[in-house]
Design goal:
The structure is a single chain. About 40% of the residues lie in helices and about 15% in strands. The protein contains ten helices and eight strands. It has one domain (about 5-200): Alpha-Beta Barrel (TIM Barrel), CATH 3.20.20. By secondary structure, it is α/β, with parallel strands linked by helices. Helix 1 (about 20-25) runs parallel beside helix 10 and helix 5 (about 120-125) packs parallel to helix 7 (about 150-160). The protein has helices at about 20-25, 40-45, 70-75, 95-105, 120-125, 145-150, 150-160, 175-185, 195, 200-210, and strands at about 5, 30-35, 55, 80-85, 110-115, 130-135, 165-170, 190. About 40% of the residues are buried. The chain binds SN-glycerol-3-phosphate (G3P).
Length: about 210
């Protein structure tokens, strides 16, 4: 199964009302997951009951006195299907990641844990998150695909994961050939943002992409 995760980040092009157009574009694709802006999660969940929706970040807490936090229990309770974690633009200390991943595994909440290096991947993989995404930070938003520019690192990453989690790759992935190349290297999916969010016709773009 090949997965496509579309990270909306905090772009103006992916904020309400544009977000609805982006989510609609992803409907009907079996393996496409969307990661909208946090403040729109409940609204989009209600409006698009069939969409596969992931948060962009989460905390380990349950319900309680945790001002300002968005815990995985809270996300699960509103029907969010999972969450990204530890994105380069949203790094967390290892101890915090460990708490979140263990809690997510306990309650059956899917996490895509991002890593920016092989050494980070090595530590995270021991915790067995549902999926792990390798994204070299210098290629993020560059339009230069990780599959073309870091194939050796990608292969090492895939070997390191060794079937213990779903291996995804991301950064600069922008078109169908980047996607095909990523899968050929052994990734079981990609994580991408700008090429989709900023496309003129997201539905057409996605069709061509997959
Ligand atoms: O989470 C995906 C991301 O960091 C890659 O961004 O814009 O290079 O696809 P982009």
């Amino acid at each position: 199964m090949v997965n496509v995760f579309l990270n909306f980040k905090a772009y103006k092009e992916s904020a309400v009302p544009n977000s609805e157009k982006l989510v609609s574009a992803a409907l009907g694709f079996k393996n496409v997951f969307i990661c909208p802006q946090q403040q729109e999660l409940l609204f989009l969940r209600k409006k698009f009951p069939k969409a596969k929706i992931f948060a962009q970040d989460c905390e380990s807490n349950e319900f309680g006195a945790f001002t300002g936090s968005i815990g995985l229990t809270q996300l699960k309770s509103i029907g969010v299907n999972g969450s990204l974690l530890n994105h380069s633009e949203r790094k967390k200390p290892f101890n915090e990641l460990k708490k979140i991943i263990l809690e997510a595994n306990k309650i059956g909440f899917k996490l895509v844990v991002c890593v920016d290096s092989l050494s980070e991947a090595k530590k995270i993989i021991e915790l067995r998150p549902w999926a792990i995404a390798f994204e070299p930070p210098e290629l993020i938003g560059s339009g230069k695909s990780v599959s073309t520019h870091e194939p050796v690192l990608v292969k090492k990453f895939i070997n390191l994961v060794g079937g213990k989690s779903i291996p995804l790759i991301g950064a600069g992935v922008s078109n169908h050939s980047d996607f095909v190349e990523s899968i050929a290297l052994g990734a079981e999916g990609v994580l991408l943002a700008s090429a989709f969010v900023k496309s003129k016709n997201p539905k057409k773009w996605l069709k061509e992409f997959v």
